[in-house]
C-alpha cells in the first residue's frame, strides 16, 4: 500500500448508541437512560448495557448531554491568591465537598483586586460552561466596595462585605479578635498591642476593628496599629520593634505565621514567653501547637467555610430563586502556653 493509499483509509468510526443497543439486545432509549444515569432501568438490563459499552469502547458525549440537561457538573472558583493559608485550606475544602456531589472545580485566578478583574473572570467562567461560581476574597476591591456581577450564574462569596444580593459565608472575624483580646485582658495585661494583616485585607480589617472596639469597651485607648503582610518575616520585624519596649506585655497577631515571627524576635531579645510577653495568634494552623512555647490562638474552620460555600452554591443551582443569606462561622480560643498572667516589666 502506498503512502497515498494509506492516507485515504477512513478512520475507524467510534461506536454509537445504536451499536451498543444492538450488542446488548435492547432499545436505543434504554441505552440512553443508562448513559444519562436515569433510575428507570432494572439492574440486570443496566449491567447488560454497561458490559456492551465496555466491550465496544463506547463513551458518552458528556458535552452534548450537559447542553441537553443544562448541567455541566463543574463549579468555578475565583480567587486573588494561593499564598495564604486560609485560601489554600478553603479551596481544598471546596474541592473535597464538590467531589462527592459529582462536581469538578475550575480555578480562575485574577491578577489584581478590582471589580473589573473579578467581572472578567466571571465572564470567562460563564463561557467555560460552569454551573455556579464561588468567589474567595482576600483583599478589598480597589475600585468598588461591593461586588456587582451580571446576572446568570449562581454565586457564593466567601467574605462578609459582598453587599446585598449575594449569599455570603465567612468566619466570624470580629468574634475571633474579640475573644483573643479579652483573653489577654483577662490575664491582667493593661494593654494589648496588635500586629495586623495588610491594610488591603478584609479579614485583617475586621480583626483590627474588633480589637480596637474591645479595648475601648474596656476603657483602654488602643495603641497605634502595626501592619504586617501575613508572613513570619513581617512578624519578626515588628516583634523586634515591639519587644524592645518594656511596656509591651501582650501581643495579638492577626495570624499564626506573624505570631511565630514575633515569638522568634522576643526570644532573641531575651524576653520570656509568657513570663514577660504573652502572644496570641489567629488561625490555629496545625503547626501552632509545635511552636515554642505552644501558641495560644483563635481557631477558625476553613473546612467548614469551604463545605458550606459548596452546599449553598448547590442549593442555588437546584433552586435559582433561593434567597441570599449571610452565614458567619463561629471561632474559638485555643489556650496554650504562650499566654500567662501579667507581670510588672522588669
Keywords:
346 residues; alpha/beta; 434 Repressor (Amino-terminal Domain); Rossmann fold; six-stranded parallel sheet; six-stranded mixed sheet; 12 helices; disordered N terminus
Tell me what the structure shows:
By secondary structure, this protein is an alpha/beta fold. Among the domains are: 3-60, lambda repressor-like DNA-binding domains (434 Repressor (Amino-terminal Domain), Orthogonal Bundle), CATH 1.10.260.40; 173-301, Response regulator (Rossmann fold, 3-Layer(aba) Sandwich). The protein is 41% helix and 15% strand. It is built from 12 helices and 12 strands. The strands form 2 sheets. A 6-stranded parallel beta sheet has the order 2-1-3-4-5-11, sandwiched between helices. The chain has a 6-stranded mixed beta sheet with strand order 7-6-8-9-10-12, sandwiched between helices. Strand 8, helix 11 and strand 9 (278-283) form a beta-alpha-beta unit. Helix 8 packs parallel to helix 9. It starts with a helix and ends in a 12-residue tail after the last strand. Residues 1-11 and 62-69 have low confidence and may be disordered.
Amino acid at each position: 500500500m502506498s503512502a497515498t493509499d494509506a492516507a485515504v483509509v477512513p478512520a475507524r468510526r467510534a461506536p454509537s448508541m445504536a451499536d451498543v443497543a444492538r450488542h446488548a439486545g435492547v432499545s436505543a432509549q434504554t441505552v440512553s437512560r443508562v448513559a444519562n444515569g436515569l433510575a428507570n432501568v432494572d439492574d440486570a438490563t443496566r449491567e447488560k448495557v454497561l458490559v456492551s459499552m465496555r466491550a465496544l469502547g463506547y463513551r458518552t458525549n458528556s458535552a452534548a448531554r450537559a447542553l441537553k440537561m443544562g448541567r455541566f457538573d463543574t463549579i468555578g472558583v475565583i480567587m486573588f491568591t494561593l499564598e495564604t493559608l486560609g485560601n489554600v485550606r478553603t479551596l481544598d475544602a471546596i474541592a473535597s465537598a464538590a467531589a462527592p456531589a459529582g462536581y469538578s472545580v475550575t480555578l480562575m485566578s485574577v491578577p489584581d483586586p478590582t471589580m473589573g478583574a473579578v467581572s472578567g473572570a466571571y465572564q470567562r467562567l460563564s463561557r467555560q460552561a460552569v454551573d455556579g461560581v464561588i468567589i474567595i476574597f482576600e483583599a478589598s476591591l480597589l475600585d468598588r466596595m461591593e461586588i456587582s456581577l451580571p446576572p446568570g450564574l449562581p454565586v457564593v462569596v466567601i467574605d462578609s462585605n459582598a453587599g446585598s444580593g449575594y449569599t455570603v459565608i465567612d468566619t466570624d472575624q470580629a468574634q475571633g479578635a474579640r475573644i483573643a483580646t479579652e483573653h489577654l485582658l483577662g490575664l491582667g495585661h493593661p494593654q494589648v498591642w496588635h500586629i495586623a494583616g495588610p491594610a488591603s485585607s478584609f479579614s485583617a480589617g475586621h480583626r483590627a476593628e474588633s480589637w480596637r472596639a474591645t479595648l475601648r469597651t474596656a476603657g483602654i485607648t488602643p495603641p497605634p496599629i502595626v501592619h504586617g503582610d501575613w508572613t513570619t518575616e513581617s512578624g519578626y520585624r515588628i516583634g523586634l520593634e515591639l519587644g524592645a519596649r518594656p511596656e509591651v506585655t501582650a501581643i495579638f497577631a492577626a495570624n499564626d505565621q506573624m505570631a511565630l515571627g514575633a515569638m522568634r524576635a522576643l526570644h532573641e531579645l531575651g524576653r520570656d514567653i509568657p513570663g514577660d510577653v504573652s502572644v496570641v495568634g489567629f488561625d490555629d494552623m496545625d503547626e501552632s501547637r509545635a511552636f515554642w512555647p505552644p501558641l495560644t490562638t483563635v481557631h477558625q474552620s476553613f473546612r467548614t467555610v469551604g463545605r458550606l460555600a459548596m452546599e449553598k452554591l448547590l442549593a442555588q443551582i437546584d433552586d435559582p430563586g433561593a434567597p441570599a443569606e449571610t452565614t458567619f462561622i463561629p471561632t474559638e480560643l485555643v489556650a496554650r502556653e504562650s499566654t500567662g498572667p501579667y507581670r510588672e516589666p522588669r
